[in-house]
Each structure stands twice: as C-alpha cells, then as structure tokens.
Amino acid sequence: MNADQTGLRVPSPGESQRCVCAAAPNLPVWIYRPRHEISADRVIVVVHGISRASHHLFEQFKGLADRMGCTLLAPEFSPDEFPAYQTLGQRDAFSRSDLALNAFITAWQDARQQVAVRSHLYGYSGGAQFAHRYALLYPARVLSLAITSPGWYTCPDRAAYPYGLKDWPVCLGQPNLSGFLDLPILVMVGEQDTQRDSSLRKGKRLDRQQGPNRLVRARTWVAAIAERQQLQGATRPVQLQILPDQGHDFLQNARQSDMLERIFVFWRQCEKENPHVVKNDLYRINADVIDRVSGETRY
C-alpha cells in the first residue's frame, strides 16, 4: 500500500517492513501484518531488552501474530535516542520512550482509519520494565500485559519512583494504578534466572524491597500486585508462571520452552473474557475466529 501523509506505509497481508514515520522520527518500528487479519483495532507490541535486538522478538512473534490475526509492532529504542527507555525516560534530558510509542501507534491508527487501537503488550527483560511502567501510565491503551524476566519493578508501594509510586515524575503524568490492576497480567520468569549478573540492577535498598534476583523479584512483585488487586476487588488476578529449566536468554526461552505458547493461550483467553473491549461486531467474534485461523482446538 502507499504511504499516507505521515510517511507510514501499511504493509500488505503477510508482509514485513521496518518503518520510520513522521510522527515518531526517532523510533524505527518493525511491522508485520498477518496473512489473515481479524481486526485492525488491536495490535501486538513487543519490546526488546537492553541488547536492543528488536528483530529477535519480531521474528519469534510473527507466528503468534498470524495465529491471533493482528498486526505485530516491534519498536527499536536505540541507546542514543532512548538511554533510559526502561523507565520511560523520566528525566527531562532523556527522550520519552512512552510518547514515541504513543505517537507511532496513533499514526498507525490514523493510517488504518481506526477510532482507537489498543495493544497486547509484551516485554522481555528491560522491555518488561518498559512494558509494566507504560501500562501503569496508560492502562486504557493496553488490552493485556505479558512480561518475562524484568530485572526489577515499580512496586505498588511508597518507595520513590522508579522503585515505587512515590514521587512519580511530574513530567510523566499521573499513573493509573486502579486501571492497571484491572488489566490481565501475566508474569513469566525462568526457573534458573537467579544469577546476579552485570545486567541486573543491585543495591541494598532494591534487594531489601524486591529480593536478590529476577526469580525472587518476580514473586515479590506478583504478590504485591495480587494483594492490591484483592483490595480493589479486581476480577482477573495477576498470573505468575515459572519456565522450567530456563535462564535469562530470550531466544533460548522462545525456542527451548513453551513461553510463546503460554503467551498465546493468555492472549486468547483475554479476548474470550473481554469481547466488549472494542465495540464492533467483528471484535465480538475474535476469539472464535482465532480458533479457526490458528487451527487450535485444545484450549
């Protein structure tokens, strides 16, 4: 298809492309449009870790995009443009990763002539840090949140941001914890992801708040979210799933475990439970159509 006025070219079904649009000139995004698109009002967004290898996530998730029948977006947050993308670029001197993603999705929404576009949001490691903080700030833009092995979290407590919600930077706007707690949330971590390696943030305060490694920190954060959900009366409790015999490596997790299948089952269940999230007749039958497109009958 031809590019619109934003410079955003919508791929043909089954086509991939790397795109930079006028609305977000510092954020290249890999786009894959599924062979059989069910609805244009939702997308899958996958966010890389500090290796910035967005193409790895993009290639591994293309199959899920086809099974879900929705477009896949994989942004590239470069270290020069977005040195603090994991914490949304919370200082004035840093580029805002959240605003760049919002600008791109808005351009995509306009190019597809949609009233609104919401995302099944996934992040791995540093991308999982970005994803859960983005969802805290913009829960209305998110259909579901799935994350794997962030090094540390923003907890729903009175620790100072980015460790907690106290002193949330004014420049970011106000977080929406209530809306966040209502989201479907899946947290995954490798059973062997217990190394205190060079990429793991460490410190007495952080270790005391969240634990010494990614496995313990995942359990700590999920317990804290579950407690707040219970107090709020949320109907979809956060899920924690441990990946057996897995450490901290995205490609190994994707290829040697059932991580991607777990994510697909989670997304599909989200759409079965929430057919009203986008008000059109096509979306109301998405879950049944996904069964036919993906060929799945087990779930």
Record the SSE blueprint:
Layout: E1 16-19, E2 29-32, E3 42-47, H1 54-68, E4 71-75, H2 97-111, E5 118-124, H3 126-137, E6 142-148, H4 177-181, E7 185-190, H5 204-210, H6 214-232, E8 239-243, H7 250-256, H8 259-273, H9 281-284, H10 286-294
Parallel strand pairs: 3-4, 3-5, 5-6, 6-7, 7-8
Antiparallel strand pairs: 1-2, 2-4
Helix pairs in contact: 1-8, 8-10
Summarize the structure.
The protein has helices at 54-68, 97-111, 126-137, 177-181, 204-210, 214-232, 250-256, 259-273, 281-284, 286-294; strands at 16-19, 29-32, 42-47, 71-75, 118-124, 142-148, 185-190, 239-243.
What does this structure look like?
The chain starts with 15 loop residues before the first strand and ends in a 5-residue tail after the last helix. It has helices at 54-68, 97-111, 126-137, 177-181, 204-210, 214-232, 250-256, 259-273, 281-284, 286-294, and strands spanning 16-19, 29-32, 42-47, 71-75, 118-124, 142-148, 185-190, 239-243. With 299 residues, the protein is an alpha/beta fold. It is built from ten helices and eight strands. The chain has one domain: Alpha/Beta hydrolase fold, catalytic domain (Rossmann fold, 3-Layer(aba) Sandwich). Helix 3 (126-137) links the parallel strand 5 (118-124) and strand 6. It has an eight-stranded mixed β-sheet with strand order 1-2-4-3-5-6-7-8, with helices on both faces.
